[in-house]
Specification:
The complex is a heterodimer of chains A (345) and B (287).
Chain A lengths: L12 E11 L11 E12 L4 E5 L6 H8 L7 E6 L2 E2 L5 H8 L2 E4 L13 H10 L7 H14 L16 H13 L5 E5 L7 H18 L2 E6 L2 H7 L2 E6 L2 E7 H6 L4 H8 L6 H6 L30 H5 L5 E2 L5 E2 L7 H11 L1
Parallel strand pairs in A: 3-8, 3-9, 6-7, 7-8
Antiparallel strand pairs in A: 1-2, 1-4, 4-5, 9-10, 10-12, 11-12
Helix pairs in contact in A: 3-4, 3-5
Chain B lengths: L1 H16 L3 H23 L31 H37 L1 H16 L2 H12 L3 H27 L3 H8 L4 H38 L10 H8 L8 H27 L9
Helix pairs in contact in B: 1-10, 2-3, 2-10, 3-4, 3-6, 3-8, 4-6, 5-6, 6-8, 7-8, 8-9, 8-10, 9-10
Chain lengths: 345, 287
């Protein structure tokens, strides 16, 4: 995979200080002040041909980030550079040239396909939307090619979505995205609605397609095991903030943010002895409401390391070296950890 | 594509007729209604407006199967001639309302915001006026005759389509496949008519057939009230209206055209329900 990525000076996607807030409540009185800050000051970069995994629990704003990049939502602040062009403020006409290059794979393989369209018609629509002329034979050939790419039989083209399994539908969703010849594919929890056995197939399909077509992924998920499998770099989100960014390999070996550590601790380990002997970090309390988010570090009400500085100042993403960034005043680095472990005895 | 069409049609028909005897019966009624209204002028045993003062208010007989009215006109011939007017007004006004109402509803529902608010408040205003009064006013302004009745009934029915489509679209546009269509670069106009309209179709076909029934009733009501189609042209409505004076003397005069209206309205409704199920790909192969 690394061979394919061309080291350009400009990364394929660069998100800088992205903000997205939604008005909460539609009352006349409450309209002004109640605002849900779904995404708050999120920045990251994806190099061409790489996969950036975005993880976090439900409601932390990871899907919103994806939809801002796709311009389904118009970002309320910050910049999104696609191939060096800021697409946040771009008029629709100029954005149209990028429109088809950024595609989305949906979480729900049922709701993302029009129940009244056959497989052929769904793919044909995606093919002809580029505004060029296509002959019937060209379309037919391209449909078969796309079905081949996602490993569906050409005989499926007459089927309707309700006649297909969840895995087949998700493959069709991928084929539709590929019909637009995208460079960047935002995968919004593409496997979380599928059976575990199918999940592995679809993940492998994603990897193969990346190899074949040189795709770049923004992979949104809440399943750490899935993300580690596919992502090169992982960003952890909490309450609209990006709290830690690191290489996928480092996620399991040396996370420093208390939230990331708690997330990891929630992943079950299949080895019985290891599972018995390890110490679980169970978070107390609930995720605060994004309408009145806590002051300072968003994680401080649930963090056992929290001090006064956490309650007052929002920690910046700081470089921990080696492409590892963490937004924490008290990162759990090697020394601090060892101390804690010895204290545990 | 050809192969797909071949496979689809019989399946849809199977579902349609698989619903039982009632659907078959109602298709029969509608077929007869259509044939009679189209070829009516050749089927009438007598001239529908021919007056025969020596044979007034007769009961059913071999010569006059449904009897004669107060002016000695053959009721059966008038029924056949009236069917033509009923079909013409109901289909034309129903279609007129559907085209305008569905388009407005799609636009209001899909774009939302101010457009939606303005359109829906206008619709509320129209709906707050009783349908019959509204139709009467328009019919009065335009004067009688088939075209003005069609416009009057058509305009009265528009809000029903706008309402329904607007509600359906508000729900449908939240679906991921609409977002998907936007992301692949599909034009709004195509999203409206390729995705939203077909998915509204099951409810719309029911509303359309119901409205055909309503239109026949309305035409009958307007003609009964004397604003609709002018005498001597027979319509089912003005036949009931004229027969009403002789209800005790000869109940046939009211009864026969009234039953015709009811039969056709029920048939439209049943066939509409059947169409909804048979045109839904999700229901195919079941039942």
């Amino acid at each position: 995979m690394t061979d394919l990525s061309v080291k350009n000076s400009t990364p394929l996607l660069q998100v800088e200080g992205l903000h997205m807030s939604f008005p909460a409540g539609s009352g006349i009185a409450s309209k002004k002040h109640a605002v849900v800050r779904a995404v708050d000051n999120v920045s990251f970069t994806i190099e061409e041909g790489k996969t950036f995994g975005l993880v976090g629990e439900s409601g932390c704003g990871k899907t919103t980030v994806g939809k801002c990049i796709l311009r389904v939502y118009r970002a309320t602040g910050g910049k999104i550079f696609y191939m060096g062009t800021d697409i946040t403020g771009l008029p629709d006409k100029q954005f149209n040239s990028f429109r088809r290059e950024i595609q989305l794979i949906f979480q729900d393989p049922y709701g993302s396909l029009d129940p009244r369209q056959s497989v052929y018609s769904i793919l044909k629509e995606a093919i002809v939307c580029d505004g060029k002329r296509h002959s019937k034979e060209q379309i037919r050939a391209r449909v078969n090619e796309l079905l081949g790419l996602v490993e569906l039989a050409p005989a499926m083209s007459g089927r309707y979505p309700h006649e297909m399994s969840g895995g087949q539908r998700q493959r069709l969703g991928i084929a539709r995205a590929l019909a637009c010849e995208p460079k960047l594919v935002v995968c919004d929890e593409p496997v979380s609605a599928l059976d575990v056995s199918i999940q592995a197939q679809i993940i492998n399909l994603f990897k193969e397609l990346q190899k074949k077509l040189g795709l770049t992924y923004l992979f949104i998920a809440h399943d750490l095991a899935v993300v580690r499998h596919i992502a090169d770099t992982i960003g952890v989100m909490y309450l609209g903030h990006l709290v830690e960014v690191m290489d996928a390999e480092k996620l399991y070996t040396s996370p420093v943010h208390p939230y990331t550590r708690a997330l990891l601790s929630a992943v079950p380990i299949t080895d019985y002895d290891v599972e018995r002997s390890r110490r679980r970090e169970v978070l107390q309390g609930e995720v605060p409401s994004p309408i009145n988010a806590p002051s300072g570090c968003p994680f401080h009400p649930r963090c056992k390391y929290a001090t006064d500085v956490c309650r007052q100042t929002m920690p910046e993403l700081r470089d921990m070296g080696d492409g590892h960034f963490s937004a924490c005043h008290h990162p759990c680095t090697g020394a601090a950890l060892q101390q804690e472990q010895t204290a545990q005895g | 594509m050809a192969n797909k069409a071949k496979r689809r049609r019989p399946e849809a028909l199977n579902v349609f007729f698989g619903r039982g005897i009632l659907v078959k019966l109602c298709v029969g009624i509608l077929a007869a209604f259509f044939v009679i209204s189209i070829f009516g002028s050749w089927l009438t045993p007598y001239e529908p407006t021919a007056i025969d003062t020596s044979n007034t208010l007769q009961g059913p007989s071999l010569a006059h199967p449904f009897g004669t009215d107060a002016l000695g006109r053959d009721v059966m011939s008038r029924l056949i001639s009236g069917a033509q007017v009923s079909l013409l007004t109901s289909v034309l006004s129903g279609t007129l309302a559907a085209i305008i109402g569905i388009t407005i509803g799609l636009i209001a529902g899909y774009f939302g915001g101010v457009i939606n608010t303005v359109i829906m408040r206008l619709v509320d205003m129209v709906l707050s006026i009783p349908a019959l009064v509204f139709a009467m006013v328009i019919a009065f302004i335009l004067g009688g005759g088939v075209p003005s009745i069609v416009v009057a009934i058509g305009f009265t029915l528009i809000p029903t389509y706008v309402r329904m489509v607007n509600g359906l679209v508000a729900g449908l546009r939240e679906n991921d496949y609409i977002v998907a269509a936007q992301i692949i670069g599909q034009k709004n106009r195509r999203i409206l008519f390729k995705h939203l309209f077909p998915n509204c179709f099951p409810s719309l076909i029911v509303l359309y057939t119901m409205n055909l029934g309503t239109a026949i009733m309305m035409e009958a009501t307007l003609s009964y009230l004397g604003i609709g189609i002018k005498a001597p042209q027979a319509t089912w409505g003005n036949m009931v209206s004229e027969g009403y004076d002789y209800l005790l003397l000869n109940p046939w005069l009211c009864f026969v055209p009234g039953v015709m209206v009811i039969l056709v309205v029920i048939a439209f409704n049943v066939v509409g329900d059947g169409l909804r199920d048979s045109l839904d790909p999700r229901l195919r192969g079941k039942l």
